[in-house]
Amino acid sequence: MAHMTVNVEYGIHSLLVMLDADGHPLSSRDLADFQGISHSLLAKIFPKLEKAGIVRASEGVRGGYRLARQPEAISFLDIVDALEGRKPLFDCQEIRGRCAVFGGAPTPDWVTHSVCAVHVVMLRAEKSMRDTLASQSLADLGTTLARKAPPEFTAGVKSWLQDRARRRARRPSGPTPNRTAGESS
């Protein structure tokens, strides 16, 4: 968790859009178009979310992604860990034993007999961040946004999603080459 990439932001925004989809599958292409971002970027994000059990894919032209769990059961920590992996916030290099004062002599035991004090602070910070991310669910953010955004915005999102779904429904079904789960053109 050393540095959260843009994947986390796009992943969370995509999942928020899915809250307004009323359980209908959304393609990664539609979600990318909605956010004005690269289709290929979301095509890399969604398999990670699927592997983590956050979304479920359905195949085909009318397929796409749906939430695999209730929004209340999807924490920000689940999303971050799915997209970034569980990397430490701080990678202690144990430089305290290389102090010039020791002049190349063996490092005294008092220097290294316990966890580095800098590392302890960083471990506390990481625990705090992970606890905060674990305490916030996708549903919590959805509720906050629903209170903040005017009703016409939510209606506009739903209308946009329904329009995309109608367009996909009009396409002929059947195998389409080079099309993966959750992707439509």
Molecular structure report:
The protein has 185 residues and is mainly alpha-helical. 53% of the residues lie in helices and 4% in strands. Strands 1-2 form a two-stranded antiparallel ribbon. The longest helix has 20 residues, at 151-170. The protein is elongated and about 75 Å long. The two termini are 34 Å apart.
Which helices and strands appear, and what pairs or packs with what?
Blueprint lengths: L5 H14 L8 H8 L3 H13 L3 E4 L5 E4 L8 H9 L24 H4 L4 H19 L2 H11 L2 H20 L15
Antiparallel strand pairs: 1-2
Helix pairs in contact: 1-4, 1-7, 2-3, 4-6
Query: What topology, given as strand order, has the largest sheet?
Result: 1-2
Assign an overall shape.
elongated
Poorly predicted runs of 5 or more residues: 176-180
- What percent of residues are in strands? under 5%
Radius of gyration: 22 Å
Helix-strand string: HHHEEHHHHH
Q: What is the average of the pLDDT values?
A: 87
The CATH homology group name of the domain at 6-88 and 137-170: Winged helix-like DNA-binding domain superfamily/Winged helix DNA-binding domain
Helix tally equals 8
Question: Short summary of the structure?
Answer:
By secondary structure, the chain is mainly alpha-helical.
List keywords for this structure.
Arc Repressor Mutant, subunit A, mainly alpha, two-stranded antiparallel ribbon, 8 helices
